[in-house]
Amino acid sequence: MSDPWLPSLITETPQAGFELAIKLSRMGVKMTQPSDEIRKKLRVIYEDDADSLIAASQVIAINYQTVAAANNCWR
Fold this sequence. Notes:
By secondary structure, the chain is an all-alpha fold. Helices cover 68% and strands 0% of the residues. The protein has one domain. This is Peroxidase. Keywords: Oxidoreductase, Peroxidase.
């Protein structure tokens, strides 16, 4: 595995938590398909597909739930 890139799930604000959720989602794709070239080729397929974009949003939402739980929902 590569160098650590995720020191903590703790964030200062809900917006920072959402941004972290997006990063978690993107890193999941990057680790699943490490080739930049192939990811760029695949992006053309899904960037105009509503179902693919909804699925990506669902992954981000799940990651956001994880970050929210780690932050005790920022209470």
